[in-house]
Amino acid sequence: YCYMPEILCISLNTHLYNVPFFTVPLARAHGKSFAHRSDLRQAKRIVVKLGSAVVTRGDECGLALGRLASIVEQVAMLQNQGREMMIVTSGAVAFGKQRLRHEILLSQSVRQALHSGQNQLKDMSLPVLEARACAAAGQSGLMALYEAMFTQYSTCTAQILVTNLDFHNDQKRRNLKSTLHELLRMNIVPIINTNDAVVPPPEPNSDLQGVNVISIKDNDSLAARLAVEMRADLLIALSDVEGLYDSPPGSDDAKLLDTFYPGDQHSITYGTKSRVGIGGMEAKVKAALWALQGGTSVVIANGTHPKVTGHVITDIVEGKKVGTFFSEVKPAGPTVEQQTEMARSAGRTLASLEPEQRSDIICALADLLTERKDQILSANKKDMEHAVSTGRLSPAMLKRLSLSSSKLNSLSIGLRQIAVSSQDSVGRVLRRTRVANNLELEQITVPIGVLLVIFESRPDCLPQVSALAIASGNALLLKGGKEAANTNRILHELAQEALSIHGVKDAIQLVSTREEEEDLCRLEKMIDLIIPRGSSQLVRDIQRAAKGIPVLGHSEGICHVYVDHEASVDKAIKIIRDSKCDYPAACNAMETLLVHRELLRTPLFDQIIDMLRTEHVKIHAGPKFASYLTFSPSEVKSLRTEYGDLECCIEVVDSMQEAVDHIHKYGSSHTDVIVTENEDTAEQFLQQLDSACVFWNASSRFADGYRFGLGAEVGISTARIHARGPVGLEGLLTTKWVLRGEGHTAADFSEQGSMTYLHENLPVARVLPGRRTTS
Amino acid sequence: YCYMPEILCISLNTHLYNVPFFTVPLARAHGKSFAHRSDLRQAKRIVVKLGSAVVTRGDECGLALGRLASIVEQVAMLQNQGREMMIVTSGAVAFGKQRLRHEILLSQSVRQALHSGQNQLKDMSLPVLEARACAAAGQSGLMALYEAMFTQYSTCTAQILVTNLDFHNDQKRRNLKSTLHELLRMNIVPIINTNDAVVPPPEPNSDLQGVNVISIKDNDSLAARLAVEMRADLLIALSDVEGLYDSPPGSDDAKLLDTFYPGDQHSITYGTKSRVGIGGMEAKVKAALWALQGGTSVVIANGTHPKVTGHVITDIVEGKKVGTFFSEVKPAGPTVEQQTEMARSAGRTLASLEPEQRSDIICALADLLTERKDQILSANKKDMEHAVSTGRLSPAMLKRLSLSSSKLNSLSIGLRQIAVSSQDSVGRVLRRTRVANNLELEQITVPIGVLLVIFESRPDCLPQVSALAIASGNALLLKGGKEAANTNRILHELAQEALSIHGVKDAIQLVSTREEEEDLCRLEKMIDLIIPRGSSQLVRDIQRAAKGIPVLGHSEGICHVYVDHEASVDKAIKIIRDSKCDYPAACNAMETLLVHRELLRTPLFDQIIDMLRTEHVKIHAGPKFASYLTFSPSEVKSLRTEYGDLECCIEVVDSMQEAVDHIHKYGSSHTDVIVTENEDTAEQFLQQLDSACVFWNASSRFADGYRFGLGAEVGISTARIHARGPVGLEGLLTTKWVLRGEGHTAADFSEQGSMTYLHENLPVARVLPGRRTTS
């Protein structure tokens, strides 16, 4: 019962070795593989296969310790979560090679080389080491290292050496299985390797520059075989390739497949072989498909990428898009990559429509919102009921989720406003220059391309953003929250119905709620701009996840109201109340109130404090304010705090200039307000302050696209390039330069050339683009 | 001679243990520490000190294997470079704790716990382990692990255990030193630790939540002592803090010090203690200063940061800005961080000047360029002579480095053009809206903030970029190449002289050539926009290095010329020749020529080929073109190639539409040209193609700010947000929203409120900003 087979060498017979493992019939068909990556979280029994490229160093002498250690860390973590982990490992040859090389050097009496202060081991010419000897010499060290490493995580390991023959004999197979089951039951991680020392001499392999290595071709199939035999839920095969490409990686069109279905096999061309070890992609795929058929899910991924090695295994088990996932179940709809392609293509047609046609589409959508009211509200009711029954949403969130007849009506009105403004957005001529005779330049507005909008529970966001995208000629990917799934689905259908009028149905795509936001943020070169609409936490997460794709938005709104000593009492009270209390969770709500020192102990100041108390605003004192008081409210931890609630910080400043300096230092460049009756002071504040919105005698709450008169708002940006402040249609446009000539060349304008630059500005107003004004 | 002291325990005496190592007088004063980080590359003998937080896991039971492995990898790499590496390590206690806990559990007959399928070790209550016993139990395992790891890199290690007393006795100290010298001579890495087993019982330490740990307070000072004793050039002390802050980390103003000078000690407030282990920041700094005084350079850095752990040691040795560098030599000028602060502050004043004042400054600079011609040219001559004598620059680079009287004259003329355009840049009103009665909104142009321009050898770039920055009211950091150091210095002096006219001398700063570009790209929150001007390799490097700061530019220019079947022969030949041959290295040169299929085997086609042959352009064939030919030129590897030389790819397309699709697929959205006489075809091409510049019957070489009439050019952007195509002044501006009210609040506009939105567009032309038009 307590017998621990620390080293278990199953008997061997070499002549059958070259039969691939996966041709041996399955002992018994078992469960089903997972349909989606997100299901992988449920995987209990997991086989991790480590290819030689993962385990060994670049020069194939010695192990890649950093990688090995981080893999051990992840495996131990998953084991400690209650999963049953097994490892199929390479690396004995490399370990042995390193060891034997050292031995040979020493026996060649080169000890003196060690004393030169330079490591000359690398430069020495060495006899070719026989790989089987290396494997034998390295096996013990490799296992010792695994054991030492796993010991750091209180995890016990066991060594299993197998050959193909062990799977051919029923008795042996039963023995192997029962041993492995016993190990798993005892919470031990079995480490499995082929018994390389007893295989026939390897054939020389020209791919590896004549280096004599052991044919461990079948570590892939060994892992597959073991996974199925042990009814593992998941097989993770790590090597130095990213996964499966549809054509050889490196070729112009090669695309990494996120998910691969058995039926797709004819559609791919295999890529290059792994640098180290044997077993090209084709062999890996064969083994993977075999395991899949046997009911084990498979992910093939790169275990050598420095940036992800530390979490590649745990990421896969968390369902993230790493490498290629092998799935038997082909989902009904297109993948998100296909959706993006469809959106871009239809978006290009959308951009080439006449402005009136885009306007038509938006009006049609506005109509549908009221015509199909019942359908929308019944879908919304479903979402509401589900949300109430699960009790996961706060009352505020529930309110944002719910739609009503009147909400749909005002949405519809808003859309019609966007339709009007859309007439003058795409293709507008911003600049027109006569560069030379018959050489005319135009700068015109064009759509940005493909937008990804990620929004939380509010479903009314969907038609709004759709209308903005249509108006600006952009393709759009929408990712809504799970809680609004039904509402979003019907709203998206209506948007597509409206788009169909002019044959551009696919320009707006709704991404499945299954997709992880983080994965979407990695679709570089497919998406041109990401717009997160929701909490500042959402924005921060997206900003962090988005690599190489710009994100429009702001993660912080630390807005200030500065009350000057020449402020009007009424205005100050009104503006402070509105800025703080109108909607404290908004990003444009006041967080810090700056008060001119002369106002301390004046009636105005007392009135401000009374008002804040009446409104139940919790007051924190800035360090300077606290120093003026005998009994002060709690002092702030940081002057850079966004409370987002009925709380604020009060700080004292000596002058308008000090207020400006304070805001530059602690603000987030969102919206800042001065309350004063002195116009000069106000204008200086407005001029000097470097925020996206600067207000005089007006509440910070006006920082909003609708209130600014921009129509619907895409978001508020605190970035310093592209759009800044509340962003409407214009933030969704970029420009292109159109030059029309008659065979003009740069050489014509050189010193020897016949032409000179005119650079004459031409009027741009109301001229249709695309027609030359002179000839 | 060949005696290898694998384990060397120096004798011990406990009663003197608590004397800190660094109070023991130096045996002998030696060399000088390095003045600059970049000198660290010369460090031959290096001590790496690994704090407990680095070596042990978060729960302090067991080692952080991934970190340890990557540290071993770096140390072995440096050792193999010929350096002499020594390690002072913690970790024995953690290793022993893990081991003893396991033993105790087993002896408590909890074997059955192992069979539950769950790892319950963590949940078990355990007796507090005596730290000295842990240390003794862990020491052997720790050393075995180090040895196993270093073995993978053919590196031999030796163990040294010391106590304070070993430094007090001259004879012992001599023994220790001679042992260490012998080890270094034999290319062995000594691994040094305090002999914890023999120290007096530790005092309980409340900072560590009552966990009973050994007082290893003095591993910092041990490392310092050893470094000085062994005349090490560099001591790298790794723990879990980023380095030294000027005030406690986490407070609003805390700033990580890049370099710390002994004289600055009074100006800092010490931060929190390291989470694991003993020895707060103050102790580390004391030890570091002591080592510095002894002639050893010191860097304190974080060895636990997942993103950099794999290269923290090698980065430090390469002179990168990691952690805090302790230096005795305070440089004369300000640090780059101080320069950025100065620039931002002066830049704000620059932005608040009247447009005429900014224009004055630019004109003054233009004057200075001609007035001080002799001075500039003599500095340039120095650079040229140096470049010629070292022979590092190619003839093309030399040409770009050289200035002449006539170059200065045209520079001066260009600056005057910028001065004119500067009149209408900052503070321009783009939009004006009457939001409600007495509530008026303006959108006005404002500078972006602080620009960092990195440019390669061309020194004429400096006055140009300076003028653009002044015109747009931006602060500017300039980083030029080493080869133009003298020229850049004088040009920068002249720029500051011009700025002084209006008291904003500091708005433009020249960064020392010592600074690494990569480090500058990390000054997030200090720099708002980076503009690399130079090779596409430079741009790519900067884009990769810039985290969180936008980069304006493009890394690829794969421009196409499409010759339609209705093209004019003359125009086609002229445009192709100019696009490819005028300046093949430019980003706007043609890389791929697309030819309509019907042109094959026509005289036009033959003429094109003849012309390309005459111009010595090497032709590569696209796959489709190759298939049409019996004997084709070499087929392209990728249709996405930027040759940047007298080479191009020719491909055949069936239609204008196919040309557009080809360019969308393989192009870089830079500049693409159609040659045709058919206006409809041309207009469709111009409309459909989604590149920054689309040309009809004009050479791709026109894609250039000067040729477009934008005045001087900042660069060409292929990004889809902010500026696109050739970027002039406008790309250096952003906007802010100014709202002027009379106590307006958002609540006034609610259903219960008294006001309604007007959103009336007001005329913007020629109204000075800042004054209300109505009352």
UniProtKB/TrEMBL annotation, chains A, B:
Entry's Gene Ontology BP terms: L-proline biosynthetic process
Domain named Aldehyde dehydrogenase: residues: 335-624
Q: Known Pfam families for this protein? A: AA_kinase (PF00696), Aldedh (PF00171)
| Gene3D superfamilies listed in its UniProt record | Acetylglutamate kinase-like (3.40.1160.10), Aldehyde Dehydrogenase, Chain A, domain 1 (3.40.605.10), Aldehyde Dehydrogenase, Chain A, domain 2 (3.40.309.10)
Keywords of this entry: Amino-acid biosynthesis, ATP-binding, Kinase, Mitochondrion, Multifunctional enzyme, NADP, Nucleotide-binding, Oxidoreductase, Proline biosynthesis, Transferase
Family the entry assigns: In the N-terminal section; belongs to the glutamate 5-kinase family.
Would you tell me the protein name for this molecule? Delta-1-pyrroline-5-carboxylate synthase
Lineage, opening ranks: Eukaryota, Metazoa, Chordata, Craniata, Vertebrata
Q: Which gene underlies this protein?
A: LOC107702454
